[in-house]
Amino acid sequence: MPTAFPYRTPVDHAPHERTNIIVDDEQPSDVLQTVSSDTAQQILARLDGEPATTSDIAEAIDTSIQNAKYHLDRLCEANIVEAVDTWYSRKGTEMTVYALSVEQLVVQFGDSIPETQR
After folding, report:
1. pLDDT digits (tens, 9 = 90+) for 46-64
2. Residues 24 and 107 sit within 8 Å (Cβ to Cβ)
3. With 0-12 CB in 10 A as exposed, 13-18 as middle and 19+ as buried, what is 7?
4. What is each CA distance from 43 to 2, 89, 98, 110, 112, in whole angstroms?
């Protein structure tokens, strides 16, 4: 039966080239803790090729939708992943589409980034 909702429209998204994370004693960063999880790393690897929904990601990395959503929320808070579109299921349910927000995540220990790295 045809549906009025598009199931998967093309997503036109280009991540930022690079994000610098500075870790020092005055401004701690939770980014390292966020990406230290095996599940978060699997999600990042899955999103490296193309955007995906929570259920697509959960299926690809063999975890529950709730677990994938938890880690996606944390990755979004850290600005490593972002919501880029909305797709609709065959039943008309909205599904958020996620993609990497950066191609490179550079972690530096200390209070400044060398001029050559900016």
Report:
1. 998 889 999 999 999 999 9
2. no
3. exposed
4. 32, 21, 10, 28, 30
